[in-house]
UniProtKB/TrEMBL annotation:
The modification N6-(pyridoxal phosphate)lysine is found at residue 294. Belongs to the group II decarboxylase family. Pfam families: Pyridoxal_deC. One of its GO terms (molecular function) is transaminase activity. This is Aspartate aminotransferase family protein. The keyword Chaperone does not apply. It comes from the Bacteria. Keywords: Aminotransferase, Decarboxylase, Lyase, Pyridoxal phosphate, Transferase. The keyword S-adenosyl-L-methionine does not apply. Gene3D superfamilies: Aspartate Aminotransferase, domain 1 (3.90.1150.10), Type I PLP-dependent aspartate aminotransferase-like (Major domain) (3.40.640.10).
Amino acid sequence: MSDLLSHDLSRLPDLLEQARASALEFLTALPEHPAGIRPAPPAPLGLPDAGLGARDALALFRRRYEAGLSGSAGPRYLGFVTGGTTPAALVGDWLVSAYDQNVSNDGDSLATSVEREALGLLRSLFGLPEAFEGAFVSGATAANLVSLATARQWVMERLGHDVSEDGLWGLPQPVVLGGAPHASVLKALSILGMGRRAVQGVPCLADRPVMDPSALEARLAALGGAPAIVIASAGEVNTGDFDDLEAVGQLCRRHGAWLHVDGAFGIFAACSPAHAHLLRGLAHADSVAADGHKWLNVPYDSGLVFTRHLALQERVFRAVAAYLGQGPDLLHRTPENSRRFRALPAWMTLMAYGRDGHRALVEQSCALARALGEGLAASAHYTLLAPVTLNIVCFALRSGDAARRDRLLAALQADGRVQFTPTQYAGRPGLRAAFSNWRTREADLPVILAALEAAASKLQVPTSAG
C-alpha cells in the first residue's frame, strides 16, 4: 500500500466528514446557486507523480470546479426532465459507494434481493401485473435499448431466425411503428443495427403528438399478420401527452404486434389518482422503460426496464462463462455484467416516503406546471404552444425566431434564477419547463415568472402576437 493510501485510510473518518461538510454546503446553497451555468473550462491538469492525497484532491476539485456546476439538483432547474435527490435516496446512494456491491450474481450478497424487492415495489407503484419482471439499468436510453433488443429477438424468432446467436446479416428489416418516438428510442435502434430510419411514422391526432389509433390499425392490418414493433409514448417529451395505451394495446394484441411503452417520466403519473387514467392499457405492453432519476428523484444513474418476456430478454443478454454460472442471475437481463447497486437509493426513497409521498410529489409537480402555464398565458411576452396536461410546460415568445429564442435562453442563463430546455414544437422555436424536483415549491413560481419577464423585457420583445 502506498504511503498516501495508508495515510488516507488512517484518516478516513475525517475525510468522510470533509466530504459530508462539502456536500451539505453545496446543498444548502442550492436555492441561491445558478440554476444553469456555462463557464469556460480551466486548462486541464497533468497527472501528478506523487499524488495529492484525498484531502488536497477534494480541496482542488472544489476550487477548480464546484462553482461551475449547475444547480440541477435545485428547485428552479426546469431543463430536460430532471428530478432531484430526496434525502433518503441520497443516504442510500452514499451507502452504495461504501458497500460497493456488484449486483450481478445472487450467490454472494443480499444486494440482488434488494434489487428484486425494489423492482416489486415499483411494479406495484406503476400498477403493472405480476407477470412483469424488471432490472435496473443506467437510464431510459438503456431501458429502451434493452426493450427493443428483446423486441428484435421476438420479431426475428417469428420469422425463423435467432438473431442473438446468428446475427442480423442478410435478414429482413423489422417493422417499427411509432408516432413521436423520443430521441433515445432512435439511438437504441441505431445501436441495435435496425437504424433510426426503421421507424415508420404513424400519423398523429390533430394538434396532439400522439398516434391516431385508426391510422395505426390501418398500418397493422396492411402487414397481414407479419410481426411488428409498436412504440408508444407515456409522456411525450414536449408536452407530456400520452398515446392512448388502451386503444394501441388492443390493436397490438389483435394484430400480434409487440408493444413497447416509453414511460421515462410519464409512468409516474400512476402515483396520482388524478392522472393514473393516462396509463390505462399499460398492462397490454410487452416492454416498458422508465427513469428513476426523473420523477422518482433518485441520483443519476438509474433507469428501469420491465418485460413480460423475461426468457426472450435473457436469450439476448445471457452471459456464458464457466465462472458465471447459468442461474437466474440479474446479469442475464441487461447489457452490463458488473453493475452498481442502483436499486438501493430507489428502495430507500420508496420505503421512506411510500405511496402517499410519491403521490404528493407527482401532484405537486403537476400543480406547479399548471400554475406556470397560467402565468405564461397571462403574460404579454409569452404564449403556450400546447395545453399543460401533466408536468411539462411548452411555450414560446409571442414573436421571434430561433435566434431570438436563443438570446432569451442566454439571458435567462446569465440571470441564473431558472433553467429551461430549448425545443421546437408545432413549427415554432420554443422552451420547455419540466417540473419533477421534490424541492420545487409554490414560492418558486414568482421567481421563475419574474426571471422570464425580465429576460423578455431585456430583449425588447414586441408584445403583439406574431
